[in-house]
Amino acid sequence: MTITEPFGHRLVAAIDARGPLCVGIDPHPGLLQAWDLPDDAGGLERFAMTVVEALGPTVAVLKPQSAFFEAHGAAGIAVLEEVLTSCREAGALSILDGKRGDIGSTMAAYAAAYLTHEAPLAADALTVSPYLGFGSLLPTVDVALAEGRGLFVLALTSNPEGQQVQHALGQDEKTVAQSIIDQVGALNAGDDPIGSIGLVVGATIGRTGVDLSGVNGPMLAPGLGAQGATAQDLRRIFADAHGALLPSTSRQVLGAGPSVRKLRDAAARTVDELRTALA
Question: Any idea which residues are catalytic in this one (predicted)?
Answer without folding.
Answer: 99
